[in-house]
Each structure stands twice: as C-alpha cells, then as structure tokens.
Design a protein that fits this description.
β3 and β4 (about 55-65) form a beta hairpin. It is built from four helices and five strands. The chain has a five-stranded antiparallel sheet. The two termini are about 20 Å apart. The chain has helices at about 15-25, 30, 75-85, 95-130; strands at about 5-10, 35-40, 50, 55-65, 65-75. By secondary structure, it is of the alpha+beta class. The longest helix is centred in the C-terminal third of the chain and has 37 residues, at about 95-130. Helices cover about 50% and strands about 20% of the residues.
Length: about 130
C-alpha cells in the first residue's frame, strides 16, 4: 500500500494557498476533476487541497518546504462509515460479522481504487511541475 506520495518540486512553496493558485492555473479539470481548498472532514484540524478519489476516499495535497505531499484520506462519507464500523456491537454476532465484512471492503477500496487514483494524480502533478 502506498498511501502517501512525496514529490520533490525544486520550488519552495510559501503556503497551501500558493499551491492552490498554481493548481487553479494549470490543472486540467475536465480530465482530472475539480478540487477545493478546505477541511476534508468536519473533524479536520487543517485545510488542504482536496481531490476526489472514490465514494469513501479523497486525496489531499499540501506543500512541505520544497516538496508536495499527496495522500489518501477519508472523504466525509468515508469518515462516517469508519466511525460506525468502530462502534462496539455489544456482542451481537451478526452485527459484528457484517461490520467486519464492511471493513474488508473499506480496506480493499483504500488499497485498490483510491491508491490508483493517488498514483494518477501524482504522475499528473509531476508532469505539471516538470519533475521526472
């Protein structure tokens, strides 16, 4: 599982807003989708550039000195799903089995389609930055 990609951009980014403006000016929204700047979930303590990935996951992007970090995180619906899955089921076997089945598909989605989207965004961001 990849989960996180780091691109050495060769450019020092002063803020997330600067990276957001770069993406606004250069991002092909028709091919790679739209994005927004904000908190990925209500519980997030910071704002990021958020790109769609799957129903339960998104990719967040942020600068870190001369690097750009892209990582998979829960989308608002995914965060709620994860919260529900973590609730105790008071010994009800059937509920526990259903929850474990849902958790498996959650992890498969994270390690499969969400990871593929992350790698696609990373390749495109490298192209925009002229990084090999």
């Amino acid at each position: 599982m990849t989960g996180r990609q780091v691109i050495k951009s060769g450019r020092k980014w002063e803020s997330k807003q600067e990276l957001f403006e770069f993406m606004e000016a250069n991002w092909n929204k028709e091919e790679y989708g739209d994005f927004f700047f904000g908190a990925p979930t209500a519980a997030s303590v910071s704002e990021y550039i958020c790109l769609p990935a799957t129903n339960r996951f998104m990719v967040i992007v942020y600068p870190k000195k001369e690097k750009i970090v892209l990582t998979v995180c829960d989308a608002p619906a995914g965060a709620m799903s994860r919260l529900i899955q973590s609730m105790p089921h008071q010994g009800r076997l059937f509920s526990s089995i259903v929850t474990m089945g849902e958790l498996g598909s959650y992890e498969k989605e994270r390690k499969g389609p969400a990871e593929q989207v992350l790698l696609g965004y990373t390749a495109y961001m490298k192209e925009l930055l002229g990084v090999k």
